[in-house]
What we know:
By secondary structure, the chain is an alpha/beta fold. Helices cover 45% and strands 17% of the residues. It comes from Pseudoduganella ginsengisoli.
Amino acid sequence: MGRVKGKVVLVTGAASGVGRENAILLAAEGAKVVLTDVNEAGVQAVAAEIGDNAYALAHNIASEGDWQRVVVATLERFGRLDVLVNNAAILAMGTIESTTLEDWQKIQRVNAEGYFLGCKYGVQAMKQHGGAIINMASLAALAGMAHFCAYSASKGAVTALTRSVAAHCKQQRYNIRCNSVHPDGILTPMVTNLMGAASAEVNVEGDPMARMCLPRDIANLVLFLASDESRFINGSELRIDNGQLSIDS
């Protein structure tokens, strides 16, 4: 207990799935947690579940104005920002042939530009005292996934952005670490909605060949990256895929 005691952590997409699990675990380990989501009612409910150390805000990560407002509100409420978990994202299927330009732009706007804005304003808030940025990427950024063209590209952008942020902060001596997390599949509402009835047949714990993990598996890694235990891990791509990339390569 207490692995992130006293830290102020901002988690986007915290109304459900991985974001919710991140916020609950980080708060249990001593952090003050700012939870944001476009689903204001949902994120308020998670904050109420956590208690006094949680603060919920409506937040569209594709909006620069929203990022400015959320960071200012965090600083006003808790006085600092130590950790940013860029977690919110959208997922849609589509190959290079079936993806429309409108779909492509929508996914890049949220998944790539939203994370750029988070890193930009996160660095601004942390550079005086240091901190950690954790970007949720995907195995789709590292492996060819034919049916997730736009999503794969957006997560590839997040991966490259992460390395750039890490290099910049090191060169500027900001003591801000930036790492990306690369799951294969996570059993979340977003994924189960996409999979439909097939999701009911997924065995995430008893099958050694499982490609799907649980939100808590991701949250455990996020907790480590948010803590001082990972002080020398910077600019890294951390896979959490049960060896799937090794099988596919």
